[in-house]
Amino acid sequence: MRILCLRIVFVLVIAAGLATSPARATNEADLLLVLAADVSRSVDDDEFRLQREGYATALTNPKVMRAINSGPLGRIAVVYVEWSGEAAQATVIDWTMIASPQDASVFAEKLRTEPRRFRDRTAIGAAIDYSVRVLEASPFTATRRVIDVSGDGTNTNARLPHVARDDAIAKGITINGIVILSPVPLAWNPSHTHPPGGLEKYYNENVAGGMGSFTLAAEGFETFGQSIVSKLIKEIAADTGAVDTGVIR
Question: What's the whole-model pTM score?
Fold first, then answer.
């Protein structure tokens, strides 16, 4: 009787493990990625659409999908955030697991149809803080957590971006930057889009940071999608043991 009871207990333990392990597995990803896009007032309606389309096209690019599927689990979790002024941040598309072209297509179509939320000032530090909170509230887990901050200008109000960045790094989060270069300085605030030394330098010094961080430049909104493809592949396939804080193109 004792042996029979032990066998029953053993079977129940194994069954419980089989029942719970798939649920745990579906919550695990190779990467948690926050896409934090600038929609401040320096981004006009055409540029806004080009930026949205750039992200949508990049996520469905076969090269990006191959990079996603090459990971140990073959999937990443993504959330899309838009930001502007100090109190202007919103989650446009909540956490989504992407493991197949179909997953990416659904995410991309939502991105193309959601309305614009803001047209305020440029609070990069507040955007980083919001993105950190979004990461901490994620229903998914991963060994790597990354925030992508894209923008066409410097911080103009609220918390300084390098302070927010350093706090995020202390939590093990990596922040990468993608700067959208403007051919002509902003009429009412030229130093916003063309700071001393250039916007790439500004982002590299004040926004990007953490393990394997980098800053990438897009030559305007028209080529933004191509730059995002390169950026996503680099992030997804990143060697977490390597540190790279240089600017890439």
Answer: 0.85
